[in-house]
Design goal:
Layout: E1 2-6, E2 9-12, E3 17-24, E4 32-38, E5 44-51, E6 54-57, E7 65-70, E8 75-80, E9 89-96, E10 112-113, E11 117-122
Parallel strand pairs: 2-11
Antiparallel strand pairs: 1-3, 3-8, 4-5, 4-9, 5-6, 7-8, 9-10, 9-11
Length: 123
């Protein structure tokens, strides 16, 4: 199983960015595929994810970030709007085969991780 995250970079505050996660070895239609992020000096936190057909979004980004997927391409996307400096982090996509609803937001349940892509928001 491999996950390849891409689309990060430098963006001004208030701007938008879309991250992509290419998944191989598992279908994104089942299991759980999610985005996490880790800001400098902080732990990794859940951003958004799919478990089966249901989407989940962290309260901290709700209304600004949205997750989508392309089943045919086996891709998961994270659309980020109205970015601010607190969104600066390395963003990771992750895959879990045995995630249950109550653990979707917990990083410990995810078996496979991509390499991460840096998102830097300048003020």
């Amino acid at each position: 199983v491999q996950l390849q995250a891409s689309g990060g970079g430098l963006v001004q505050a208030g701007g938008s960015m879309r991250l992509s996660c290419a998944v191989s070895g598992r279908t994104v239609r089942s299991g759980a595929t999610a985005w996490f992020r880790q800001a400098p000096g902080k732990g990794r936190e859940f951003v958004a994810g799919f478990k089966g057909g249901s989407a989940y979004t962290a309260d901290s980004v709700k209304g600004r970030f949205s997750i989508s997927r392309d089943n045919a391409k086996n891709m998961v996307y994270l659309q980020m709007n109205n970015l601010n400096s607190e969104d600066t982090a390395v963003y990771y996509c992750a895959r879990g085969d045995r995630i249950i609803t109550s653990t979707v937001m917990l990083e410990g349940g995810y078996d496979y991780w991509g390499q991460g892509t840096q998102v830097t928001v300048s003020s």
